[in-house]
Amino acid sequence: MSEELLKLLKAEGLDLLSCMHCGICTGSCPSGRHTGLNTRRIIRDARKNRAAVLSDYDLWLCTTCYTCQERCPRGIPITDAILELRRLAVREGLMLPEHRFVSEMVLECGHAVPLDEETKKKREELGLDPIPETVQKDPEALEGLKTLLKTCKFDELVAKK
User: Fold this and answer.
1) Which UniProt keywords apply?
2) Domain boundary residue, one of 70, 91, 112
3) How many CB atoms are located within 10 Å of the residue 39 CB?
């Protein structure tokens, strides 16, 4: 068992040891119908193998709809546990490349989707301001956001480790 991981989760009020592996979580998961997400396996792996669960791609397939958590006969906060596992994974530098890219874009330009010249042109053709009312339009706000993200150490969190 991954005692350290279980202690971390339990400290957050997420006790996974009462799971009886009935599979209701997996059977009721809307995301699992279309992806490889198997919540029961994630819970099992969290109990057995820290490295495996934190580096599992499927950990990121959960849409956080809370269906599994609402239907769990033992009342295990499964979705909350998955969110905490994700937080732990990110702290260890384990992040999907797509998430890292979006995070880097936010750090760089204050927005997950940067504006390119083509998008600005299309906006103008539609009668819109080429730059929407976001921090991208206000250099002072952008600098404020960057300062906030650095103060929160978001830049360190998303840096490749």
Assistant:
1) 4Fe-4S, Cytoplasm, Iron, Iron-sulfur, Metal-binding, Methanogenesis, Oxidoreductase, Repeat
2) 91
3) 28
Annotation-wise, does 72 bind a ligand?
yes
Of 91, 120, 139, the residue at which a domain comes to its end is 91
Considering the domain architecture, whether residues 9 and 86 belong to the same structural domain is answered as yes
152 assigned binding-site residue: no
Is 29 annotated as belonging to a binding site?
Answer: yes
The string of pLDDT tens digits covering residues 69-83 is: 999 999 999 999 999
Q: Is 65 marked within a binding site?
A: yes
Structural domain boundaries, residue 86: 3-91
Mean pLDDT along residues 122-143? 92
DSSP string, 94-153: ---HHHHHHHHHHHHHSSSSPPPHHHHHHHHHTTS-SS-SSTTT-HHHHHHHHHHHHHTT
Cα separation, 1 vs 46, in Å, equals: 8
Whether the predicted model's global pTM rises above the 0.70 cut: yes
CA 143 → CA 136, 157, 158, distances in Å? Answer: 10, 19, 18
Lookup: tokens for 116: 């390119």
**What was the pLDDT predicted at 1?**
42
Spatial CB neighbours of 18, under 8 Å, sequence gap ≥ 6 = 74, 76
